[in-house]
Amino acid sequence: xxxxxxxxxxxxxxxxxxxxxxxxxxxxxxxxxxxxxxxxxxxxxxxxxxxxxxxxxxxxxxxxxxxxxxxxxxxxxxxxxxxxxxxxxxxxxxxxxxxxxxxxxxxxxxxxxxxxxxxxxxxxxxxxxxxxxxxxxxxxxxxxxxxxxxxxxxxxxxxxxxxxxxxxxxxxxxxxxxxxxxxxxxxxxxxxxxxxxxxxxxxxxxxxxxxxxxxxxxxxxxxxxxxxxxxxxxxxxxxxxxxxxxxxxxxxxxxxxxxxxxxxxxxxxxxxxxxxxxxxxxxxxxxxxxxxxxxxxxxxxxxxxxxxxxxxxxxxxxxxxxxxxxxxxxxxxxxxxxxxxxxxxxxxxxxxxx
Length: 354
Prior knowledge:
By secondary structure, this protein is of the alpha/beta class. The chain has two domains: 4-84, Arc Repressor Mutant, subunit A (Orthogonal Bundle); 93-343, 3-Layer(aba) Sandwich (Rossmann fold), CATH 3.40.50. Helix content is 47%, strand content 14%. The chain is built from 16 helices and twelve strands. It has a seven-stranded mixed beta sheet, sandwiched between helices. The chain has a three-stranded antiparallel beta sheet with strand order 1-3-2. The protein has a two-stranded parallel ribbon with strand order 9-10. Helix 11 (136-161) packs parallel to helix 12 (178-186). The longest helix is centred in the middle third of the chain and has 26 residues, at 136-161. The radius of gyration is 22 Å and the shape is globular.
C-alpha cells in the first residue's frame, strides 16, 4: 500500500479534472440545493450519463470532497460546501477552471525550464499577462479566478490593514476589485481607485454596479510600470508582487513611496512562505505556478520586509490572517506606535521595524 500522501499526489492528475467537471456540470450546485441525492437522480435532473457520474462521485468520495451514505446518497460536507457552492462568497469554481484550462496546459514547460532555465526557454520580453488577457473570454475567466481566490480573504485583510483613517486607497493591479470592495465595506468613509490595464475596466464597472458603490469606487487605466500611480494616502498591492521578480517589485514599491504623502503607507497582500520554506502547501504549489504563468515567486515575510525597507519604507508590520493570505504594512515615516490592529496575529515585524 502506498503512503496516503503519495497516493493522493499520484492520483491528483485525476482529482482536479473531475472536480472541475463536477463543478462545470452543476453537480455541486445540485447537492447544495437539494441535499443528499442518489447519482441516478442527479444525472436525470442534470441530463448527465448516470454511469459516468457515479464513477466521478465515487472518486470524489475517495478524495474526501463529498460524502456517500450507506444508502448511496451523496452529499456535500459542511467543510466543503462554501468553496463549492456558487452562491457562497468563498466559492472557488473560477480558480478550479483556471487550474484546468490554463495552468495544466503550461505544465509541460517545466521540463524545458528544468533542463534549460526559464530565461532560455521563454522569448525575450515576454509579457506574462498577454496570454491571460488574450481575448474577452480569457480575460473574464482569469478575473473570475482571481476574484474567487481573493474576495473572501480580502475581507479579513482589509480589517487587519486598519483603514479607518485612510481617505483614498489606490489598489494597484486591483483587477475587478476584490480587495477594493472589501476595503470599502470595512471603512464606509473610504474612497478607492483601482489602477489596472484598460481591458480590465469593464469588469471593474460591473463590480461597482453589482455592489452599488457609485463614485466611491473608480477606475484609472494604465500600466503600473510605465504610468504614474493615482494619488492616495494608502497604496495597495493585492496579490500582484508575487507575479514579478525582486527588481520589478522594488520599482513598484519605490513608485508607491514617491506617490504617497509623508504620512502615507503601502499594503502588500500575498501568500507567505513560512520562514523554513516547508510550506504552506498552497503557497508552495502556487509558487510553482508563478514560475509557469508569471515572472515572479512567493516570498517570506522577511523577504518582503527587506524589499519594503530598500524601497524607502523603514518601518513595517506583518499581520497573519486566519487563512493563507496575509498583509504587510509599510510606513513611509515612523507610525510611532505598537500595532495590534483588530487582534491580528503576526510573526516578524508586528511592531514597527527599525
